[in-house]
Amino acid sequence: MKKIVLLTAGIMLVGGALFPDVTPAAESKVMTVGEAVQTALENNPAMREAEENIAAAREGIRSARADRLPTVSLGYGYTALKEKPIFKKFNDAQGAHQDTYNWSVTVVQPLFAGFALDAQHQIAKLDTATRQLEKEQAVLDIARNTKAACYNLLLTQKLLQVSEEEVATLTAHKAEAEQFHSEGLIPLNDQLRAEVALANAVQNRENARANVEKAVLSLNRLLDRPLADDLTLKNETERSVEIESDPQAFDLDILGTRAADQRPILKLLGVSIKKLGFAKKAAQSDWYPHVSLVGSLAHTGENYTADSNDYSDDDESYVAVTLDWKLWRSGKTVAEVNRTKRQMKSLEARMAAYRTQVQEEVRGALLDCQVARANIATAQKALDQAHENWRITEIQYQNQAATSSDVLDARTFLTQADSNYYRSVYGYMNALAGLEWAAGDRITR
Fold it and tell me: Measured at the alpha carbon of residue 36, what is the angle toward residues 35 and 42, in degrees to the nearest 5?
């Protein structure tokens, strides 16, 4: 048996040396909320998507600009006739080769397209502006979501700390209850209450620990980090004092004006209305003639290079000005123009609705901040009272002037007050983030 054990141990040592554990260790990161937001803005896939959309829109500008420049086309063809082409009036004389090859180069330069080309170029520029505004909206959304995830993580960490403190105090109380029961100072059911309360506290602590891990997963996803990596946030509750130092931070008129000027959704609707204006102009272009300058060089012959022709010149070239005017399209142009007009009116109505909605969001977010700020003071007072109640009850219990139930009730009140205080603090921080989102910009500098 000793030989088998030694042999097994030797195999494990050799195997560990030859095949070391290559599982990468989880990375641990410590950052502030501001650093987390910056990391999310740099790494989040939504930002990369926005950048690619902007790049694609810029290519659209180049494409629209190219429509105003000359186009060059090359053509090549081969024709095989069943019979030789002849002239009947000239004693059936052959008039061309039976097999012919031809190639041509044509250059077309648009001169006037009824303002359609200019309209399409402007639409492409506005499409780029649209993609820029979508990026601004993505920045607002990512910052808002990241801050919410950060404050949720900080809150769950504090609630875990409260749960651990509760387990520690109830563990000490259980030991006291066991001692008092052994001395005949309290009945058995008081000791059992202490044990049940401790068991419940342990369960709550495990739930709180799981909530912390879930909050880390959520934040890592927003930061585009491996989900299993550790992440620790520095506590920044001091920011609430910073907000109060700015007298304009909670001014409803200033916030409302800022939101009307800064919210990307309103800017997007404005750009969309402008795009429809140019789309109407492009549709109206069919009411005008389209003029182009055309130049062409063509060769026709009996060989594949089309440079040998016994019946006519093997090359022809010309320069011409062409005019194309669609005089009647069965009402299609009028319908297209009217369609864009209706779409513009629809967007104008939507913009009016969004203006009201944005103002409502600002007012609602401001109310949330005010309520959350007031709740901090209330929660702080309740927490101080719960601490004092716990201290007094503990002294009374040690002097047999209070029961075990009184101690457990006091601990429950303290846990609840602790939890409510941290929820109010981080609820206020989250409300501030919501107000910044509603205003479309940071409310402090």
Answer: 90
